Amino acid sequence: MSAIRVPASRMEKALAETGWRVMVPSGAGRKGGYVELRAGGRLPRECGDHTKPSTPPKGLVFPNNEELLSYVLGVKGEIEVGPASHTMARTVLYGTPPCDTASFRALDSALLKDMAEPGYAGKRGLLGVIGMACSRAGRWCFCTSVGLSPRSNIGADLMVYPDGDDLLVERVSDRLDGLWKRLEAGAAGADEKALRAVEGKFVPRVLNFVFEAEKLADALEKAFGSPYWKEFSERCVSCGICTFLCPTCHCFDITDVAKDELSGKRLRTWDTCQFPEFTGETSAHNPRKERWARQRQRVLHKFLYHPRNHGHMMCTGCGRCIRYCPVDINIAEGVMRLGGSK
Amino acid sequence: MRDYRSESARLREIVSGLLERGEVELVVAWTEGEDRPRTRETLIGKGREDLLRKVVWSPFCTTSTVTFLKKNKAALAGKRLGVVVKDCDLQALNVLLQEHFLKREDLVIIGVRCDGLAEADLFPRPEGAEVPITSDGGGVTVGKQRRAWEDSGFTTCLTCSYEDMKPDHVVGEYGRKKGKPEWGHLARLQALEPGKRREHYAALFESCIRCYACREVCPVCACVECAIDPGERAITPRTAPSVKACAPVWACRERSVSENAVYLLTRTMHMAGRCVRCGWCERACPVGLPLMEILDLSNDAVRRVYRYEVGRDPADPPFLASYAETDPDDKGAGH
């Protein structure tokens, strides 16, 4: 059985029994975040743009400040290297909207596929994602433009469709089978028809435009030299908002921080293609000195390079980069202009 | 009541006149974007009727055209420019003129009389260009949606006292009495016992994600290279030790209370006598940090101790370059 119907309270109980840390979206806006559910706390019963915080869930497994190793120089000159101190408790993300849920597909393809990055892989292995169908689109949402929808389960291990006081739970991967078994025992099954019926309630209401991944990549490749990039970015201020708040952006910087002459640590912090020194080379040459070149990189990474390498767009249409951009730079507008189709 | 459609039409006349007569090569103005009533700064040249048509002035012109000038300084160098400014923008422009960052003779300044700003995202998207945007002493109205000024998302505008600036052209008339700067929040913070105050600021510093939006959107944060993350600091085999010694790392990339504090406090100190309290840093902050709370610490000192008013006149000396014989700290001045 791959789908069941359970009362929402049963999900609460089953999750509590696992003893795992449960993280839930705390609500929309700048002061929000994915926060730990208090013991006995109520799980969110719905999700949508109004529950989506400004910071995406990527920080759980890809923290902004991550100690990769520490070192101490001994008296005889020997160097003792300590392991990464950053660990994570077994965690379940509950109630992520489909845009944030799908972000893990993009992050995994970049940081796990082919060559797993140990810091990310270690934490990712301890994370389960329970996505939820989205019942309220926001003004900046465009998930349906990038191949997702308010009911897509991409990136989820379990997918939840709220239906009154019940939840229809769909098993998408085997990662949360421990929890699934607890839920499944004695629960009513939901056949394909019942699942589709409930799923159908979460109809896409974000009908703006459609990007066809392959066509778009081709069009953007041709638009590499377009003069529009300058117009697109003339008011860009080169801050990190669009990328730091992006659920899929995963560029980082590594720096060694000396505590004193004998010890220190190696840190990984978020970095962004929008900072001028991002591509600064040792020779002092900087291939992306101009803001328009950096904005072009952001757009092309999402809609040309990543799709060509991994088969899906590196944008989930969550709309954060548009909503929080201080100067109204709109990635959807730019992509439409350069290669979208209505 | 102010009708921003007619004021926008007047602004378009002025802008197009300046371009037509060749008084300026380019104009920086707000235009309507895709996401109305949001607006965006746009560079408009002669013959760009498509952009000129969209030129707009409303309480949703919340960005700073002076930041645009700062960001595009190199590209605009030597060009004669028109620039549309609100009261706080002009204040910021005056600071940059005082510091010789820009030249007054290169600019034609078009001032819009501002009663306050409103957050576009709090209003529904107006359907169609004909939806009127108006305001009066009490609040802002877009179509049928009305919000009081106090409820429009811009706290700094409620205490803005800057008016009657002298630009080259003026659009609109004030429709609301200006406020008075408020410092009650500082008194409340300073009344906290030191331990609590420390906790308060530590929590603020800890939440910073170091996206540097506060610095980048600031119209007067205009250093070519910031001490916090100097981008041009290339170390090559030929770099002399003396040069390396001149580029210390003031704050490392670690996101921690202490490193974030170095960034935010360095900025605060550097803003002394330069911050015009437009509040854009605070509004841009994606994690909602109350940045004005820190900036006002130095703003208050500048006002109360030195009785200096920021950005009133381009001919005034900059705060840190001004000297008064009555300076109470100057014991050697013979008084």
Radius of gyration of chain B: 21 Å
Main-sheet strand order of chain B equals 3-2-4-5-9
Average pLDDT value of chain B? 91
Number of helices of chain A: 11
The average pLDDT value of chain A, as a whole number, equals 92
Q: Describe the oligomeric state of these chains in a short phrase.
A: heterodimer
What pattern of helices and strands is seen along the backbone of chain B?
A: EHEEHHHEHEEEEHEHHHHHHH
Biggest sheet details of chain A: 8 strands, mixed
Radius of gyration from the alpha-carbon trace of chain A, in angstroms: 22 Å
Which structural class fits the helix and strand makeup of chain A?
alpha+beta
- What is the terminal separation of chain A in angstroms? 39 Å
Task: Write a structural description.
The complex is a heterodimer of chains A (342) and B (335). Chain A is α+β, with helices and mostly antiparallel strands. Chain A has one domain. Helix content of chain A is 30%, strand content 20%. Chain A is built from eleven helices and twelve strands. Chain A has helices spanning 8-18, 98-111, 118-124, 177-184, 192-199, 213-222, 228-233, 241-244, 291-310, 320-323, 331-339; strands at residues 3-7, 21-25, 34-36, 65-73, 79-82, 91-96, 127-132, 158-163, 166-171, 188-189, 252-258, 263-270. In chain A, the strands form two sheets. Chain A has an eight-stranded mixed β-sheet, with helices on both faces. A four-stranded antiparallel β-sheet of chain A has the order 5-4-12-11, with no helix packed on it. In chain A, a hairpin with an 8-residue loop joins strand 2 and strand 3. Chain A is globular and about 65 Å long. With 335 residues, chain B is α/β, with parallel strands linked by helices. Chain B has two domains: 2-171, no CATH class; 185-321, no CATH class. Chain B has 13 helices and nine strands. Chain B has a five-stranded mixed β-sheet with strand order 3-2-4-5-9, with helices on both faces. In chain B, strand 2 and strand 3 (39-45) form a beta hairpin. In chain B, helix 8 (194-207) crosses helix 11 (257-270) and helix 11 (257-270) packs parallel to helix 13. The longest helix of chain B has 17 residues, at 4-20. The N and C termini of chain B lie far apart (53 Å). Classes of the chains: A alpha+beta (342), B alpha/beta (335).
